[in-house]
Amino acid sequence: MIQTAELFSIKEASDWATKHVGKLVTTANISYLVQYGRIRKIGDNGTTQVLKEELVNYYKSYNGHRETAWKDQLGDDLNWALSYDQFLKINHN
Questions:
Q1: Number of CB atoms found within 10 A of residue 47's CB
Q2: pLDDT, tens digit, for every residue of 29-53?
Q3: Could you give the angle at which helices 27-35 and 10-21 cross, rounded to 10 degrees?
Q4: CA-CA-CA-CA torsion for 37, 41, 44, 49, nearest 10 degrees?
Q5: Axis-axis angle for helices 65-74, 52-62 (nearest 10)
Q6: Would you tell me how many other CB atoms lie within 10 Å of the CB of residue 2?
Q7: What is the pLDDT of residues 50-72, one digit of tens each?
Q8: Using CA atoms, how far apart are residues 6 and 17, in angstroms rounded to an integer?
Q9: How far is CA 92 from the centre of its chain?
């Protein structure tokens, strides 16, 4: 059985992820992860919740992945600090 202490609302997940990755993670970002199956939706009563453990695993797999992939292609002398990867990407929809 899933313990409620392990569950986050979309807003709580957004707040947690923002602190965890050190840049803004919006509720829309979390909803995207749920909608596209990156993390599971928990709950059927109209309230979407997500497991903290799945957020931890998602961001663990994401952090550093882009840098590693580009260095594999371009070599270790790539200056990742110039990539702007650490800055917020704004979606203008």
A1: 11
A2: 999 999 988 899 987 677 889 999 9
A3: 110
A4: -160
A5: 20
A6: 11
A7: 999 999 888 876 656 666 666 67
A8: 14
A9: 19
CA distance 91 to 89: 6
Q: Which of 30, 31, 35 is nearest to 20 (CA)?
A: 30
In this predicted model, what pLDDT tens digit does every residue of 67-88 receive, in sequence order? 666 667 777 776 656 665 555 4
Looking at this protein, which amino acid is placed at residue 70? Answer: W
In which element (H, E) is residue 47 found? none
Determine the Cα–Cα distance for residues 50 and 53; give it in Å rounded to an integer. Answer: 9
- Is pTM beyond 0.85? Reply is no
* DSSP H or E run through 13: helix 10-21
With CA atoms as reference, report the closest residue to 9 among 69, 34, 91.
Answer: 34
Residue 90 has pLDDT above 50, yes or no: no
